[in-house]
Write a structure and sequence with these properties.
This protein has 284 residues and is mainly beta. The protein has three helices and 16 strands. Strands 10-9-8-7-6-5-4-3-16-15-14-13-12-11 form a 14-stranded antiparallel beta sheet, with helices on one face. Strands 1-2 form a two-stranded antiparallel sheet. Strand 6 and strand 7 form a beta hairpin. Helix 2 packs across helix 3.
Length: 284
């Protein structure tokens, strides 16, 4: 193993790379039009496939990781009853010792428009943990309580607290707060991951709208974006420090120009390199 064992153990427990997929699904999968604070901003969120370059962001002196590089392809697609998101990424971590480790991942999820069903499948392969294939699904009853089932633990279900939301529901709440001029929202979100990290408490801070035209994005370019920061906590945590935070810049049409995963002693920056629209399916 090229990294210090404690560093990799902590990293795989919090899984910031999967968090990137989560926040992108949050940002891209609302599926409803919204009106932002400025009269200039009035767009329906669009289906698309975006390609990001990932690299080291900030780094504290005590971090064992000295460099990061990778790439991610994320797609959000609409079907007749919900939304499907797909992410493929490759990311390499370089340690101060000169060694490196690589992570490959394929993630798919689907969420019903009704907000009561969610499913996901994950394939992750790394040089320090080997290959893992697993998935799961969630059903929420009319009373608000839910159960999450995982293929790795098929005989046991995880109880979800009343009020648990999925990523698409989460973004609707965030955007409603942004439209109303409110800045802070808390939620319990089922993100889709291993059982000990699939359910997270979140605290979101919505920044103001930033007028900054985009170039090179073709028909998906917008004149500005929201700056949004989401902090993720384990439900049982009593610490004021989150497991990780993600800050992203989201256009009114749902395209994320860039995002940063802050992991405490280092962060990962993802910059949009190209994007293409996805054709909608025809529903009767």
């Amino acid at each position: 193993m090229a990294y210090d064992g404690d560093v990799m153990s902590k990293q795989t427990k919090t899984n910031p790379h999967r968090a990137a997929a989560v926040i992108l699904s949050v940002a891209l999968a609302a599926g409803v039009p919204f009106q932002a604070a400025s009269a200039k901003i009035n767009s329906k969120l669009v289906e698309h496939k975006a390609f990001y370059e990932m690299q080291m962001g900030e780094r504290l002196q005590n971090s064992h990781i000295v460099n990061i590089n990778g790439m991610s392809a994320f797609a959000i697609e609409r079907d007749c009853t919900g939304w499907r998101s797909i992410e493929d990424y490759m990311i390499q971590f370089v340690a101060e010792s000169g060694g490196s480790d690589r992570v490959l991942s394929h993630f798919e999820s689907w969420e019903a428009d009704s907000g009561d069903k969610y499913s996901f499948d994950i394939m992750e392969e790394s040089s320090f943990e080997g290959r893992k294939d697993f998935g799961g699904f969630v059903e929420i009853a009319s009373g608000g309580d839910g159960n999450a089932y995982f293929t790795m633990e098929p005989d046991s279900a995880i109880k979800l607290p009343s009020g648990t939301v999925f990523p698409m529901q989460h973004v609707r709440n965030i955007l409603e707060h942004a439209e109303a001029g409110k800045k802070i929202i808390g939620a319990t979100v089922f993100t889709g991951a291993e059982p000990d990290s699939a359910l997270m408490r979140t605290s979101t801070v919505v920044g103001g709208w930033r007028d900054e035209p985009a170039t090179g994005l073709g028909e998906l370019a917008e004149e500005g974006y929201w700056q949004i920061n989401v902090a993720y906590f384990k439900p049982s945590s009593t610490s004021a420090e989150p497991e990780y935070e993600i800050q992203f810049s989201m256009q009114a049409n749902g395209l994320v120009r860039e995002y940063e995963i802050n992991y405490g002693d280092f962060s990962i920056m993802a910059n949009l390199k190209s994007v293409e629209p996805v054709e909608s399916v025809s529903c009767s």
